[in-house]
Each structure stands twice: as structure tokens, then as C-alpha cells.
Amino acid sequence: MSLSKSLPTPPLANAVSAIFAALLLILAIGSVAEANPNYASFVIDANSGKVLHERYADSPRYPASLTKMMTLYMLFEAMEQGKVRKNTRIVFSRHAASMQPSKLGIPAGKSITAEAAILALVTKSANDVAAAVAEHLGGTESNFAKMMTAKARALGMAKTTFRNASGLPDSRQVTTARDMATLGIALQEHFPEQYKYFSTRSFKFGKTSFRNHNRLLGRVKGVDGIKTGYIRASGFNLVTSVNTGGRSIVAVVMGGKTGASRDAHMEELIAANLHKATKRRKRSMLVARAGGARFDLDAPSIASLSASDIPVPAFANRAQDRPAETAVDALATVQAPRPSEPIDAIQTASTSTRSGWVIQIASLPSQNEAVEYLRDAQSRAAPVLSARDPFVEEFEKGGVVYHRARFAGFESKSDAWGACKALKKYNYSCLAFDNS
């Protein structure tokens, strides 16, 4: 028997190679997961909905900048409803401008178009832009995060909770690999035209060009998005969409040790699973459109409010993002505290409005949160606020109720403005105005 006749036929050789490669991948995934508690992965056939691969797919993970996928979903929906157009100006508040990098660096009071915001989120993953979009659509970022969470639930993302629009660190902002794949498919199915933004390789803003953080674009055949993410607590995350030869998959890798290793592992998952996907498209959507939530986008825009009505949001990891530890169910009208008295005596929304110069440091969803925030602020920034008069004032705009955390007791404009300036070093947002 000749040597050539004893060798396996090419089809058999290919099959053996594929099986061997799959076994190596399984072993590699097992060792990676064992050494890395942040690891999770998931691959789904975007045509049929069949799960092709999953590893810790339902375990809680931090989304990091994958969060911006939902921020963009909400923006695309607003555009679809005619509430936002490509040339709509997105104004940056001091809160938005204060976000940590990655950011565009837009000063407070300035604006960019909605289309520029989309491109900045897709490529640069700009945190300041995410916060500005959140405030434009939700009035405050904290309110927008509630809208995002409600939308996630409506889309079937049962294990996802959002606390901000950017993905900056917050221990209660969690998701799963399966939920992120669901969102990736929803973006493609619900907004096919806007989804094309995710394939943008670079974005030029002013004199600076920003390259897309998704390095698989143009490197791996068929990859057309979606989003990368990283914070220290999460590791390197990536949601990738592949459409080629009639086959379509969405793959998720979370917890990569480095960007390069995450990308390499994603390439392995694509190679191991793409050929398993069907070329037949289901007639119905895999992710149903969420109905009954259009009212979410009726919250006031920052740009539409007067200076005294701007719901100034507080920083992401401060008191308003922690559950209230003290029950304040029966806060009665009491005298304002003197400097030596405890902060427990806070004027609430049921009291009369204070006149004269006041400062506002936050606008929060509930009275309890506003009270706790005032307590926290007067404790943390005692040199600035210990002698001031804390109170909560209720404000309704567009059907959304805010509880404004404010301080009175300022003799003049310069006195109030000076307090706001001093509060910057304590990382508090602040707005001073005459409430007469």
C-alpha cells in the first residue's frame, strides 16, 4: 500500500483538525476561567437564536463601557421617535464635562450634534458624551440609568442593572454575557440603519482623529461591530458581531487580562463557532421590541430648562448611589439647625420655599435620597456647609418629579458663588442662584 493511500482524505483531515481545535479551545477556556474569576463568554446564532457556546454566561459581571450600547440604544430610539435628529445639539453640563477619561473634553455649556455624539461613543467611548446624552434624554444621569434598566428588563435582560450611562465604576452596575448578547442583537434588529455606525473605523473631531477601540474591525472577516469595555474591576470586555456568507453570530468575551488576549480569544470563538451558524433567517425578531416605554424619553432636556430648574446631577459614586441607610418616613417641619446642631433637622419638600441666594448640589429621584445626600454633604464639606441651612425642594417637569438638594443662608451672590467654588475640591456639583 502506498503512503498516499494510507493518508486520510482531505474532508476527514479537516474534520479531525476541527475537532482537535475545538478540544484545545475547551481546555484553554477552562484554564482561563479557573485563573480569572471575571471571565465569561457567550456565542449565539443571530439568525436562529441557537446558543453555540456559553461559559459563565449568566454570572454577574461589570459591563464597563459595554454600558454605552444601551446608551446608544436609547438614543437611537429617541431618533426613531423624532425626539432627536442627527443635528440636534447635545449640551454638556458641568457634571458631564467633569467625567473621567476617556472623554472628548467638551467644556460645560458647549454642545455637539447628536450624530457626533454617536460617533464619539462608538469610537472614542467618551464618558463625557455618555453623560451628556443621558442628561439630554433623561434630565439627570441617575434618572436615565433607571430608564436604561427598565429598557433592559423590557428587552429580556433580566440580570442587568444600570447606574450610569458610561460604564464608569459602580459596584451595583452589573450584567451578564448573555444579556450583552441580547442587547447586541436588539441593536441590529431594531435599528438596522443606525447600527451601521458601529462599523466606523475612525472619527475626526476638530483636528483630532479617534480610532475605534474595536481592533477586530477590518482584521477579522465579517466583523461589523459592536463595543469594547474596560475598568479595573471588570477586565477587558468585548461584544462582537460577525455577518458573512449568510451566517450571523454575536459573541461576548468578558474579563480579559489584556486587550490583546481578549481579542485573540474572541477570534478563537469566532473561528470555532461561525461555521455552526445557520444561513436561514428566522422571520420574527429574536429580541422583541419593548412596548409601552415611550414615555421614558419625555423627561426634560437640560437644554430646555432655565438655570434655576436645572436638575444638577451628583457624581456617580457619591451618596445618592447608595441605598439610604436611615429611614426618614416622617420628616416634619423643623427649625433649621445652628452650626452646633446635628444635620438631622432638614427642611423637606413639604415646607415653604427659601428665598434669597441658595445653592443646589443635586437633584434626586426621592426625598429620602435628597435628605441623605444633604447630610453627607454637610458632613464631608463641613468647612463650607456646616453653618448653612439645608432643605429639599420638590420640582416637577414633563411628568418627572425631582427632589432638589439645596442649601440656603447665603448673604449675597458672591457668598453663594464662593461656596460653589469651594465645593469643587470636595467633588460636588453646585449651582448658585437667587431664589427670591
From TrEMBL:
<keyword id="KW-0133">Cell shape</keyword>
<dbReference type="GO" id="GO:0071555">
    <property type="term" value="P:cell wall organization"/>
</dbReference>
<dbReference type="InterPro" id="IPR018044">
    <property type="entry name" value="Peptidase_S11"/>
</dbReference>
<keyword id="KW-0121">Carboxypeptidase</keyword>
<dbReference type="GO" id="GO:0009252">
    <property type="term" value="P:peptidoglycan biosynthetic process"/>
</dbReference>
<dbReference type="GO" id="GO:0008360">
    <property type="term" value="P:regulation of cell shape"/>
</dbReference>
<dbReference type="Pfam" id="PF05036">
    <property type="entry name" value="SPOR"/>
</dbReference>
<feature type="active site" description="Acyl-ester intermediate">
    <location>
        <position position="65"/>
    </location>
</feature>
<dbReference type="Pfam" id="PF00768">
    <property type="entry name" value="Peptidase_S11"/>
</dbReference>
<comment type="similarity">
    <text>Belongs to the peptidase S11 family.</text>
</comment>
<feature type="domain" description="SPOR">
    <location>
        <begin position="351"/>
        <end position="436"/>
    </location>
</feature>
<keyword id="KW-0645">Protease</keyword>
<dbReference type="GO" id="GO:0009002">
    <property type="term" value="F:serine-type D-Ala-D-Ala carboxypeptidase activity"/>
</dbReference>
<keyword id="KW-0961">Cell wall biogenesis/degradation</keyword>
<dbReference type="InterPro" id="IPR012338">
    <property type="entry name" value="Beta-lactam/transpept-like"/>
</dbReference>
<keyword id="KW-0573">Peptidoglycan synthesis</keyword>
<dbReference type="GO" id="GO:0006508">
    <property type="term" value="P:proteolysis"/>
</dbReference>
<feature type="active site">
    <location>
        <position position="125"/>
    </location>
</feature>
<keyword id="KW-0732">Signal</keyword>
<feature type="active site" description="Proton acceptor">
    <location>
        <position position="68"/>
    </location>
</feature>
<dbReference type="GO" id="GO:0042834">
    <property type="term" value="F:peptidoglycan binding"/>
</dbReference>
<dbReference type="InterPro" id="IPR036680">
    <property type="entry name" value="SPOR-like_sf"/>
</dbReference>
<dbReference type="InterPro" id="IPR001967">
    <property type="entry name" value="Peptidase_S11_N"/>
</dbReference>
<protein>
    <submittedName>
        <fullName>D-alanyl-D-alanine carboxypeptidase</fullName>
    </submittedName>
</protein>
<keyword id="KW-0378">Hydrolase</keyword>
<dbReference type="InterPro" id="IPR007730">
    <property type="entry name" value="SPOR-like_dom"/>
</dbReference>
<feature type="binding site">
    <location>
        <position position="227"/>
    </location>
    <ligand>
        <name>substrate</name>
    </ligand>
</feature>
